[in-house]
Sequence to fold (477 residues):
Amino acid sequence: MKKIFVFFAFVISIKSLAQNGYEIKITFKPFKNQYIYLGHYFGKTYPIIDSTLLNEKGEGVFKGNNKLNGGIYLVGYPNRNGFFEILIDEQQHFSVMADTATIASGVKFSNSPDNVLFTAYQQHMQASGKKIKALQDKLKTAVNKKDSAIIEAQLQKDDVDINQYREDLIKKNKESLLGVLLTAMREPVLTGNLKDPKNKADSIAAYQFYKNNFWDGVNFWDGRLAYTPFFEDKIDKYFNQLVALEPDSVIKEIDYMLSFGSASEEMTRFLLIKFVNRYLNQKYMWEDAVFVHLFEKYFANKQYDWLNERGRKTITDRAYSLMANIMGTPAADIELPDTNGKTASLYALESPFTVVVFWDPTCGHCKEVLPKIDSLYNAKWKAGGIKIFAVAKETDGSKKDWFDFIKDHHLQEWTNVYYSKADDKLRTDNNIPGYSQLYDINSFPTLYFLDKDKKIIAKKLTYDQIDEIWQLKVKGQ
Fold:
């Protein structure tokens, strides 16, 4: 297995669990007088937590005063471009004997029943994998349907045998770390009409059964699951395929997991980092509410020793940027001077729909997009009652650039306002959030689509996407 070890920069340190410490003696041939490393899985990262210098005999010791969290750990090669896996759980004083020449056939352990069981499991799965690969290759060259049917039947039998082997192992070793991990890896098995639905009712029943049983046997308070390569993928599959794509459903699932996960410091850390990273930059417009919920419930009034100041500031700043522009809530009012020097207000603009455009007169992409928005406005939007409120943010240009662009592209029918550097500074000096923060503006142009009450229907979409949403809204009225 070839992967590069990386450090996880979002946290301060890995806080070990207490008492008695760990001592893992290792002999790793043919290396000598070189450092090897001890790390573990943590989502998509592989934090290094210890190292040891091998002596002339290839011997070294990983040792610490505090016990390690249980999970799947990685012993990294001196050049860090490869590793082999070991299990660490209750027994944290044991010996490992490895040799790169024979590592494919298994690593040897002393005083570690968990790893003896783990090695036997790995060897069995490797042998089964080779057998299945050979049958799959044979299937590709089968010359007739009869031969194909025989091979396919054998593949099905082998699949059943593998599943039964795992189930037997779980049953005999339910309390072991490997038993816990294999239980967590299981997925619901559909049978009968659930496996082969005949109608819509069967399909709905199959979905409900699969979702309701997806986490069978999984305890979210078990921090050992955080130190595995598969648990994050299982969470991703659940949210991507089984949870409804709307904020209340997602928030409900997150709170459920964390209500149990809070019993484990490592699981809490894992889940919070997982969800913050996922919803920091939204894939869907409605995910802003999910991130704000994460901040308000789990970060606003809580401290975590694993979260550094940079990470806390990133979360806080992002949450405050989203709070004022959550989907379905009223947009913040904008009051800025128009082309006549008079203050124009967004809320004074009466219309069934409003498109708010944040742009920069010196932005090349804006110069390309704004005329296209105006063409759509003249062709369709104006007749449909849509009005445009355009906010020009001063950056490197001047008011003259703004005036010239409006004049050259005949944008006089829009409500055009100018957000100068001076106005922005005045708000900041008076501890008033700037419009860029209130509307979470990170690039130009940025478009918002509002209803008659100035509630946010859509945000940060292209003008074509807003046009599609508008047409759906009109048809739905």
The two ends are 57 Å apart (CA to CA).
